[in-house]
Hints:
The protein is about 60% helix and about 10% strand. It is mostly helical.
Amino acid sequence: KNAQGVSAFIVEKDFPGFSRGKKFEKMGWRGSPTGELIFEDCRVPAENLLGIENKGATVLMSGLNTERVLLAAFSLGLARGAYECALNYAKERIQFGKPIATFQMIQAKLADMAMEIELSRLITYRGAYLADQNKHREMNLTASYAKLYTSEVAMRVTTEAVQILGGYGYMKEFPVERMMRDAKLQTIGGGTSEVQRIIIAREILSRS
């Protein structure tokens, strides 16, 4: 079946037949609870219809591009935080009588991290600008660019930050291990990296 006949509703927490199930234990994003929503003969009044009847899929899809830009901003913040932590650590950590930031391998990692963060910032700001201007058609491509690129940058940068901190990076005493766990969801939520690549391919082919 396609999306026809699906409607969106606002369900209040005290509606009869609605309850919350168990809370899931997640690898990351632990500050954002996730759990089961249970509907058992739950009746929702007609005035709680969201949008037009039988157009629930349209309601759902209408916010996806904005969500993807917001997720890109989240990824950008994660990457930036991990980079700054790694940079400060590299300047303070002494090995063989000098800071590890003087070692070329560490410098190469920091350079790549800084470059990818700056590129992520530019594409995310571009997506936010298009959202502010209500240029939804242009956002189809840019939102997927931003979401895909920044989420994968966040994963790479947080992983490299853990690597630069070494054993300390694996400890909860330092924030980069949490950032790495949080970054993983960014490549899944709001449409996986694989889905974003399909969207991008369809958009560029339709415009050629």
